[in-house]
Write a structure and sequence with these properties.
Layout (H helix, E strand, L loop, with lengths): L3 E3 L2 H9 L4 E3 L6 E5 L3 H11 L8 E3 L3 H7 L5 H10 L4 E6 L6 H4 L4 E5 L4 H9 L4 E2 L14 H8 L5 E3 L11 E4 L6 E4 L5 H8 L3 E2 L23 E4 L2 H7 L7 E5 L12 E3 L6 H17 L4 E4 L8 H11 L2
Parallel strand pairs: 1-8, 4-6, 5-9, 10-11, 12-15, 13-14, 13-15
Antiparallel strand pairs: 2-3, 3-7, 4-7, 5-6, 9-10
The structure holds threonylcarbamoyladenylate and magnesium ion.
Length: 321
């Protein structure tokens, strides 16, 4: 049986109320959702994704007031960010209340919360009397889905319903910021830029791990977002010049350039207008497309390391071998 793709909220609620999983759209990526207050339901997320249980999940709700049911305290400085960026692509880590089961947080005393900015999902969340735990709706370690067909392709045989909210606007995951220590700490680059956060609350600590075995945000393990083809990040001209691969066997992922020595069908530009937001929204879809080509290697370029470009570079680094 393959998952049905549709827009029926009542059906979604019925499934969730039976402690089963549903894929839901957000503005970042599609999530694999379950009742966050029910350990049985949440356990199924880990099974379906084949995700290690030490890797905690983000809970999703539609309202600041509701966040306060789940966490001990929302510091003033976090409230400023919530006011500015929620609903939106910013996830906050706070000390959790007992009501959040340990399985959601991988045994941690903290919980990550987000108010996603997607009309259909906000409506769904407002109709539920529990928050939704939802990691990205992909098998552990693979590229996150940015439309319902990506979910269907990878998890369609393990789900009964995918809520269709179209293409994700932002196209890569939320930024994660922790308020467990005095100075706010950025744990993952994502849809909300460091610059725009610092504009509101001043300097924060960037604690994004690349190689750490036991990072603060364990989803940040390096080998992540992995395409099947080998991917190398660098100066594409140099990579082509030094490469032993036949040019027919090389795929290109660039910001805005074309490379005359490589067949056009093997090349993907993320933004014709050199717009980083547009590039981010195309990144995961394009990685999937390149992965389907009959090639041996993908060369990707370094993006400008500013704003959402930092998140693009982070995902490319993790996808590289
Ligand atoms: O954009 C997003 O955030 C998407 C959509 C579906 O909301 N969700 C998502 O979830 O990316 P996931 O599970 O793929 O990534 C969640 C990240 C992981 O890196 C996890 O380690 C971190 O959040 N995380 C969750 N709870 C945490 C906590 N208490 N402390 C630190 N990191 C936490
Ligand atoms: Mg993920």
């Amino acid at each position: 049986m393959m998952a049905e793709i549709g827009k029926d909220l009542n059906k979604v609620i019925q499934i969730l109320n039976k402690d089963e999983l549903v894929a839901i759209p957000t503005e970042t990526v599609y999530g694999l959702a379950a009742n966050a207050l029910n350990s049985n339901a949440v356990k199924k997320i880990f099974d379906v994704k084949e995700r290690p249980t030490f890797n905690p999940l983000i809970i999703h709700t539609d309202d600041l007031i509701k966040i306060e049911y789940f966490v001990e305290e929302v510091p003033e400085i976090a409230k400023k960010l919530i006011e500015k960026f929620s609903p939106g692509a910013l996830t906050y880590v706070f000390k959790k209340k007992k009501i959040i089961p340990d399985i959601v947080t991988g045994g941690k005393k903290s919980v990550a919360v987000r108010i996603p900015n997607h009309e259909l999902t906000l409506k769904l969340l407002s109709m539920l009397d529990y928050p939704l735990a939802a990691p990205s709706a992909n098998p552990f370690g693979f590229i996150s889905p940015t439309n319902p067909y990506h979910v269907e392709e990878q998890l369609g045989n393990k789900l009964s319903y995918i809520l269709d909210g179209g293409e994700c606007n932002i196209g890569l995951e939320s930024t994660i910021i922790s308020f467990l220590n005095e100075t706010p700490e950025l744990l993952r680059f994502g849809g909300v830029s460091v610059e725009s956060i610092e504009n509101i609350i001043g300097k924060i600590k960037v604690k994004v791990n690349i190689l750490n075995e036991l990072p603060d945000a364990p989803g940040q393990l390096k080998s992540h977002y992995a395409p099947n083809h080998k991917l190398i990040v660098g100066n594409i001209d140099d990579l082509i010049n030094k490469s032993n691969f036949d040019t027919e066997r090389i795929g290109i992922l660039s910001f805005n350039k074309e490379f005359s020595s490589i067949p056009i069908k093997n090349q993907r530009k993320l933004s014709n207008h050199s717009n980083l937001e547009e590039a981010a929204s195309n990144l995961f879809r394009v990685m999937r497309e390149l992965d389907k080509l009959d090639i041996d290697i993908i060369f990707a370029e370094n993006f400008p390391d500013i704003e959402i470009g930092k998140a693009i570079n982070d995902r490319l680094k993790r996808a590289s071998t």
